[in-house]
TrEMBL record:
It comes from Nonomuraea corallina. SUPFAM superfamilies: Radical SAM enzymes (SSF102114). This is TIGR03960 family B12-binding radical SAM protein. Residues 260-502 form the Radical SAM core domain. Pfam families: Radical_SAM (PF04055), Radical_SAM_N2 (PF19864). InterPro entries: CHP03960_rSAM, Elp3/MiaA/NifB-like_rSAM, Radical_SAM_N2, rSAM, rSAM_horseshoe, rSAM_sf. NCBIfam families: rSAM_fuse_unch. It comes from the Bacteria.
Length: 636
């Protein structure tokens, strides 16, 4: 397949579109290889605009790892804005990579990383612009293998018709394994066409190929069973787990964006996985067990990455960064090393305890003490027990008091609305909590110049979590509770000006709920929405609830049945044949405990409570302390 640059055709369109710089590539640390130097070629997509997609760690890591392999190349592509899409259609310009502006259809593998289900329509746009048939069954031998990854790939069923394959879990090793399977198949002269290639990928047990599985339904619409339709395909497809993060110190050469992006910093993942057991948190459940990167590797990555990129902000990433067993030494070591330089450090602060303030103080040595974020998630103690977020009101007040008295002026609190068993009182409890936070801050500082921002997201039950059986709250209930909360906050003159309130209405959560727990029948809705102009559904200015509901009606899909309906224990769930390692019985038991107020400890510090992941996946918790220290100070 020819792969000449389409840039000469793209360039005349760029002056006519917004932010043309996002399409030109050439970023520091980007890679362009000779097309003929590679025999396996990947186009990697983050299905959102460049400004959101470029900082994505998953894509950045795979891009680097694949480009380091001999005879392999990887390029990136992002969702184009509707203005450029219209011009590309008018001029016949195909979906292109930003690295060498090659047409996506010329690549062997088109890998799409989904952090959220709201990117599905953008994948359809990219396929269509690329000239790749939307439906996998209609693709020919010249079309790339369309492969999904990322957290949403743990239930790829709603997009099963559009995918050739999906991969669950960590991508580093499986991307290399897939590359080798493709290489071998091509070297042998592509025996059996794409069907055999997919078969080879599926037989390995590491890649899910939806078309090799049939779904049967009960007359009432529930799934009867999902079974392989080929003898050598496994009944269940397992997730991938990288066990030694020190062996995979990526990104080594962080991409430096040309255009403005949502995060402009070098992010280093300090551990993967989380065993705190928050029942709403899909990321925590599907990335178990905890695997820490060592303090010395983190130190070396920070130093190297800053040197290679010139970024002046470094973020220490993970699902709960303050939980790294050597975070204290790490914070102090990095703060010492970069004190007086223009490199600042940041830690997404979500754990509610005073230790977090000490860390934040270390990390703000070079910067301003602007804002700290904590996530109590539930407004009442009862609610926090249901979701297994063990934060007492006392903890929260003590922590924010420490923050305010140490010079922080702004605290952001993150909550969810629509949680299982939630009542109006639980949500109104958020207003009480916010007022107590302000009161404590005023008392601690003697000043009225402090603020607290309450930020609320709608809860969406996710696959592979204890809440996968829960009925989602309808959007009317969520909106009513949020309105009552807003009135309670605004109606109190003493606190109204000190408390900011950010929330979204409940409608997007219903669509996310439909896509999260949907099955293959939901694919017709996604396609109909896309045909109706649906693009960038994660952006409020592009999202249309009415478009989704009208498409669902036309497709004969009952949205309530997929979202607000509570499932029975023995109902076959669309993702039951996809194995995140969690024992189904343990998940059900944890769901029952949620309703009865039972709590689960973190297995990092207490005995294993048999969630199933470690024995199923052959993994184990990997934490320090290693007792090692950061390397001696070097001049940066
Ligand atoms: S199997 Fe045990 S040790 Fe492993 S993540 Fe689950 S609870 Fe923790």
């Amino acid at each position: 397949m020819p792969a000449e640059s389409i840039f000469p055709r793209l360039e005349p369109l760029l002056p006519k579109v917004q932010k043309p710089i996002q399409y030109v590539g050439g970023e520091l640390n980007s890679t362009v290889k000779e097309w003929d130097s590679a025999d396996v070629r990947w186009a990697l997509m983050y299905p959102d605009a460049y400004e959101v997609g470029l900082p994505n760690q998953g894509v950045a890591i795979l891009y680097e790892i694949l480009n380091e392999l001999p005879a392999t190349l990887a390029e990136r592509t992002y969702a184009v804005w509707p203005d450029l899409e219209a011009l590309m259609r008018a001029e016949g310009v195909p979906q292109f990579t930003v690295d060498a502006h090659r047409p996506v259809r010329a690549f062997d593998v088109f890998g799409v990383s989904f952090s959220t289900e709201l990117g599905y329509t953008n994948m359809l746009t990219a396929l269509d612009l690329a000239g790749i048939p939307l439906v996998a069954a209609e693709r020919g031998d010249d079309d790339p293998i369309v492969l999904a990854g990322g957290h949403a790939a743990f239930n790829p069923e709603p997009i099963a018709d559009f995918l050739d394959a999906a991969v669950l879990g960590d991508g580093e090793q499986i991307a290399i394994a897939i590359t080798e399977v493709v290489r071998e198949w091509k070297a042998e002269g592509r025996p059996g066409g794409r069907d055999e290639l997919l078969m080879r990928l599926a037989e390995s047990g590491g890649v899910y190929v939806p078309k090799f599985y049939d779904v049967d339904y009960h007359p009432d619409g529930r799934i009867k069973r999902v079974a392989p339709n080929r003898p050598d395909v496994p009944w269940r497809v397992h997730k991938h787990t990288v066990m030694d993060l020190d062996e995979w110190p990526y990104p080594k050469k962080p991409l430096v964006p040309l255009a403005e992006t949502v995060h402009e910093r070098f992010s280093v993942e300090i551990f993967r996985g989380c065993t705190r057991g928050c029942r709403f948190c899909q990321a925590g459940m599907i990335t178990r067990p905890v695997r820490e990167r060592s303090i010395t590797t983190i130190g070396a990555m920070v130093e190297h990455g800053v040197k290679e990129s010139g970024f002046n902000e470094v973020g220490l990433l993970s699902l709960s960064s303050a939980d790294h067993s050597e975070i204290g030494d790490l914070a102090k070591g990095l703060a010492d090393r970069y004190e007086g330089t223009n490199t600042s450090l940041s830690l997404p602060s979500t754990r509610v305890d005073a230790f977090n303030i000490d860390l934040a103080n270390e990390f703000s040595r070079n910067g301003r003490r602007s804002g700290l974020t904590f996530a109590p998630e539930g407004g009442s103690e009862r609610m926090r027990k249901v979701i297994n977020k063990m934060v007492t009101e006392e903890d929260l007040i003590r922590t924010v008091t420490a923050a305010y008295s140490q010079g922080w002026r702004q605290v952001k609190l993150y909550f969810m609305c629509g949680l299982p068993t939630e009542t109006d009182e639980d949500v109104l409890g958020i207003a009480d909590l916010a007022k107590k936070v302000i009161k404590a801050g005023r008392e601690a500082t003697g000043s009225r110049d402090i603020r607290c921002t309450v930020s609320i997201g709608g809860f969406v039950p996710k696959p592979h979590t204890p809440f996968q059986w829960a009925g989602q709250a309808d959007h009317e209930t969520v909106d009513r509770r949020l309105k009552a909360l807003r009135d309670a906050l605004r109606g109190d003159r003493e606190y109204a000006r000190a408390v900011g309130f950010r929330y979204h209405d409940g409608k997007p959560s219903i669509v996310e709920g439909l896509l999260s727990r949907g099955d293959r029948r939901v694919g017709a809705v996604i396609r109909a929405v896309w045909e109706d102009g649906g693009r960038f559904d994660g952006w409020s200015e592009h999202f249309s609830y009415e478009r989704w509901m009208s498409a669902a009606e036309r497709a004969g899909v009952d949205v309530d049945w997929y979202t607000t309906r509570e499932r029975e224990e023995n109902e076959v769930l669309p993702w039951d044949h996809l194995d995140a390692g969690l024992d189904r019985e343990w998940l059900w038991q944890d769901w029952q405990e949620a309703v009865s107020g039972g709590e689960v400890e973190d297995c990092r510090w207490t005995p294993c409570y048999d969630c199933g992941v470690c024995p199923t996946m052959g993994t184990e918790i990997q934490i320090g302390p290693t007792g090692r220290k950061l390397l001696p100070l070097t001049v940066v």
